[in-house]
Design brief:
The protein is mainly β and 488 residues long. The protein folds into two domains: 1-337, Glycosyl hydrolase domain, family 43 (Tachylectin-2, Chain A); 341-482, Exo-inulinase, domain 1 (Jelly Rolls). The chain is 3% helix and 54% strand. The protein has one helix and 32 strands. The strands form six sheets. Strands 22, 23, 24, 25, 26, 27, 28, 29, 30, 31 and 32 form an eleven-stranded antiparallel beta sheet that branches. Strand 3 and strand 4 (78-85) form a beta hairpin. Bound molecules: beta-D-fructofuranose. Beta-D-fructofuranose binds at residues 37-38, 54, 65, 97-98, 113, 159-160, 219-220, 283-284. Beta-D-fructofuranose binds next to strand 1, strand 5, strand 9, strand 13 and strand 17. Its EC number is 3.2.1.26. It comes from Proteus mirabilis (strain HI4320).
Length: 488
């Protein structure tokens, strides 16, 4: 692997020299250059947070998957590390696909999918996927140990292992597609995490499966406790779901099923698949536990097969902010809020006085830098719509006609135009905590009741930020914002 790692590093360094800045994030983790997709192997290990990611260091396009790597003390400021895994062994010839990490007895274990095209490159109808392990003593250099779990009979798409320890055993969920092309998550267990030359037990259970005949694959499963009461969330990213009205508009989605599980009982699901985020760009999140016991998750902030204007700058893909996940038992759903450490990015605080806008716009900033905004609006308004404009291409607003919260992008020069929206939360007020980076916006509504993550692509000279209300008046009850510092 050493030689392949050296080649990838040389390619990455060359690409980084050409990498553009206009869209490159100031406070979100992205590869130094080249392509990034799923977060992989998020873990706290020997005093540091590690984030790995699906990475193609040779170009801004998806290609043979490597694992990029970064470390952090606070999950906000990241330091790039050497590429951790490069494909090319017999069992991962075509790529080191997604997976997870485990810190165990001082060593760092990566569980990933060895991917192999059996016919032509890119031909998904003939592949071999198996779960593999790589181990590190120093947390930086990894030794591949090969396959520890081949696919069960009848499964060809079998990927994205997430491993954890519970009640004396090691557990693994894997995303799968059964013989009838239906998405599933399979559950395996083993007494030991890894033993040289030994494989995991091949017995498995189907932890969950689709009830939507169009859904042919469940990718990137994550399964974790959300209460002290055997309540678990199964988070995964289904492929094939059709758009229904305002819902499931992204090519693929990510959501959760909530239920009851213990090693002795099947997963008993309460309620329906609920999307975790409602923006244009959110996929394949992975969670981990922090040093102080919080459940934190990061997702890929981009979407398969969507226009990615950052590619003109020789990079693509970034993570969302790390988000703390909590269970809202009454609503039977997960809530995500930015981890408290994001406050370390804040520079000077600016307040916006309470104000009523009557069919007008109030300019806050031009050439908007990276900022965090905290806005509370009254929902008692007759305006047609009110909210925020960023340049001519991005609107974030309450639509009083449809009674929905909307994020709308319009960048025809990149073939990007359209909106994502949800019904307006119930209440007299709405609180919006908004993070704006150079090409991304994340909106947390009412402390995580809803979240929207979207990429946007404003020209450098079209970055005015305004509050607005059209065709009537709307009241901003309280507002504040901070410019944010750069993480690298
Ligand atoms: C999800 C995914 C995974 C796979 C990886 C390949 O985005 O398709 O299922 O492991 O990306 O890069």
């Amino acid at each position: 692997m050493k030689q392949r790692l050296e080649q990838s590093t040389t390619a990455l360094n060359a690409l980084q020299k050409k990498r553009g800045e206009q869209f490159y994030p100031q406070f979100h983790l992205a590869a130094p250059a080249g392509w990034l997709n799923d977060p992989n192997g998020l873990v706290y290990h020997n005093g540091l947070y590690h984030a790995f990611y699906q990475h193609h260091p040779f170009s801004e396009l998806w290609g043979p998957m490597h694992w990029g790597h970064a470390t952090s003390k606070d999950m906000i400021h990241w330091q790039h590390q050497p590429i951790a895994l490069a494909p090319g062994n017999e069992y991962d010839k075509s790529g080191c696909f997604s997976g997870s990490a485990v810190s165990h007895e001082g060593k760092l274990y990566l569980f990933y999918t060895g991917h192999n095209w059996l016919a032509e490159e890119g031909d998904d109808s003939q592949i071999y996927q198996a779960q593999c392990v790589a181990v590190s003593e120093d947390g930086i250099h990894f030794e591949k140990k090969g396959i520890i779990l081949p696919p069960p009979q009848g499964y060809m798409h079998f990927r994205d292992p997430k491993v954890w320890f519970q009640e004396g055993k090691w557990w693994m969920v894997v995303g799968a597609r059964d013989e009838k092309d239906q998405g599933q998550v399979l559950l395996f267990s083993n007494d030991t995490l890894f033993e040289e030359g030994k494989q995991w037990r091949s017995e498995y259970k189907v932890l969950g499966k689709t009830d939507d005949k169009n859904v042919y694959m469940w990718e990137c499963p994550d399964f974790f406790p959300i209460s002290d009461d055997n309540e678990f969330a199964l988070v995964f990213s289904p492929q094939g779901k059709r758009a229904e009205g305002y819902q499931y508009r992204n090519l693929f989605q990510t959501g959760a099923l909530i239920g009851q599980w213990s090693p002795k009982q099947p997963f008993i699901i309460h309620g329906h698949f609920t999307e975790l985020d409602n923006g244009h760009d959110y996929y394949a999140p992975q969670s981990f536990v922090t040093a102080d016991g919080r459940r934190v998750s990061m997702g890929w902030m981009d979407m398969w097969n969507s226009p990615m204007p950052s590619q003109q700058e020789f990079w693509a893909g970034c993570f969302t902010l790390p988000r703390e996940i909590n269970f809202d038992k009454r609503a039977n759903r997960l809530r995500m809020t930015p981890i408290k450490e994001v406050e370390s990015l804040r520079q000077t605080r600016n307040t916006i006085e309470m104000t009523t806008l009557n069919n007008q716009a109030l300019k806050l900033l031009d050439k908007t830098p990276a900022i965090e905004l905290n806005l509370t609006w009254s929902l008692d308004s007759q305006a047609e719509k009110f909210g925020l404009w960023l340049g001519k291409g991005l609107e974030v607003f309450v639509d009083n006609q449809s009674n929905r919260f909307v994020i709308r992008r319009h960048y025809p020069q990149y073939n990007i135009s359209g909106s994502r929206s949800t019904p307006l939360p119930v209440g007299c007020e709405i609180n919006l905590r908004i993070f704006i980076d150079r090409s991304s916006i994340e909106v947390f509504i009412n402390h995580g009741e809803l979240t929207f993550s979207s990429r946007y692509y404003a020209d450098e000279n079209d970055r005015d930020l305004s509050l607005f209300a059209t065709d009537g008046s709307a009241t901003l009850i309280a507002g504040e914002y901070w410019t944010l510092s750069t993480i690298s």
